[in-house]
Amino acid sequence: MTSLADLTTMRVGGPARSMVTATTEDELIEAVRAVDDAGEPLLVVGGGSNLLVADEGFAGTAVLVRTTGIQVPDASACGGVTVTVAAGEMWDDVVARAVAEGWSGIESLSGIPGATGATPVQNVGAYGQEVAQTIASVRVWDRTEQRVRTMFAADLAFSYRHSVLKESMVGPDAHAGAVTPRHIVLSVTFSLRPTELSQPIGYAALADGLGVELGARVPLAEARDAVLHQRRNRGMVLDADDHDTWSCGSFFTNPILPAQQYAELVARAAERLGPTSPVPPQYPATEGNVKTSAAWLIDKAGFTKGHRMPGPAALSTKHTLALTNRGSARATDVLALAREVRDGVREAFGVTLVNEPVLVGLTL
After folding, report:
1. Which of 75, 133, 254, 344 has its CA at a distance of 20 to 30 angstroms from the CA of residue 354?
2. Dmax over Cα atoms in the chain, in whole Å?
3. How does the average pLDDT of the chain come out, rounded?
């Protein structure tokens, strides 16, 4: 029996009761239908980069999405480049192909682990780009309506690390302890731009690394290399020999706070850190709200890089937002660390951090 730990980047978790591999779209639909017809709990596994699975495993069927294929139905210079990608294609391979072909729009999303089918679910983003900026449509199997649907960008209601696909998750299942998707992503269609230059650089650290001003454009390959360099420095590019990369990436999302709550955060930070200390970072968000930095809150609450080292689970030595498996961690170790950090930040600043990974058989 295959342990789900072998299929996730955190490398923890027990086995699924049963497991099915789907290598074609038809196989994927049939596998999901069979699970539903049998009344079994369903866990969909792509690249496994956003899953934290209980040590007891999953009391249902795990469907492994291993579909492949990249189609380019339109590459006109005027209309842009339309690229349709099977859900099981590894995301960074897609970005590498786009950079090599001269298709811009996703170059700043280099090095992100996982499969393409997961990217629209939580609106994957990094270094000033989000997939919402380039996704034209997503084909899904709708388990409720029992049909294939095409959902366009406007239907997906993208926001920070969120979409209708994520909103429509069902669960947690009473027996298996996992949320389960209503919509199974079959393929994602992107609208990219035929240009050898990147889109305007919108992230200060990336611009500094490239030696350019914010808003500048650079050759696609240079942008990709700079992003990979930034991610490696933070332990965010998978490396079997580097336990800082045995993680789910950023474990907590950046909080989006009403303006009044952000003002209260500023006051609490000044009281805790001193009136001359820097204020909590603030970034644009929806009207009336402020987005701040989870990593800043974690660090200023006293959880520094490597916190809990040399234990089985610890914060990354490179990036406080990553909870890592130091080689022998169990899911319970990771969850205990997550609770410690969440509770410590809440006590220090009155902000409750929210986990980004999907918890299977676990509750934070």
Report:
1. 133
2. 62
3. 94
Residue type, 253: T
Residue 174 has a pLDDT of: 44
When mean pLDDT is compared across 70-84, 277-291, 338-352, the lowest value belongs to 70-84
Task: Single out the residue of 70, 329, 344 nearest to residue 187, CA to CA.
Answer: 70
- Say if pTM beats, i.e. exceeds, 0.90: yes
Of the pLDDT bands very low, low, confident and very high (cuts 50, 70, 90), residue 144 is very high
Q: What is the DSSP letter of 201?
A: P
Separation of alpha carbons 334 and 213, rounded Å: 39
Asked if residue 295 lies in contact with residue 280, where contact means CB atoms within 8 angstroms, the answer is no
pLDDT given at position 286: 87
Distance from C-alpha of 143 to C-alpha of 181, rounded to nearest angstrom: 8
Query: Which helix H or strand E contains 10, and what residues bound it?
Result: none
Which are the catalytic amino acids?
Answer: 161, 250, 356
In percent, the amount of the chain with pLDDT more than 70 equals 96
What pLDDT does 180 receive?
84
pLDDT of residue 296: 98
Full set of structural domains in the chain with CATH: 4-65 (3.30.43.10), 70-233 (3.30.465.10), 243-360 (3.90.78.10)
- CA-closest candidate to residue 83, choices 193, 176, 221, 6: 193
d(CA 107, CA 299): 29
Q: Which of 59, 138, 52, 129 is nearest to 95 (CA)?
A: 129
Residue 182: left (phi > 0), alpha (psi -120 to 50), or beta? alpha
Tell how strand 183-194 and strand 80-86 pair up. antiparallel
Residues 245 and 229: beta-carbon distance below 8 Å: no
Single-letter code of the amino acid located at 120: P
Helix ranges (H only) for the chain are 25-37, 91-101, 153-156, 164-167, 204-210, 220-233, 259-273, 294-300, 331-349
Instruction: Evaluate whether 265 touches 292 at the Cβ level (below 8 Å).
Output: yes
C-alpha distances out from residue 250 to 13, 195, 247, 294, 302, Å: 19, 31, 8, 9, 18
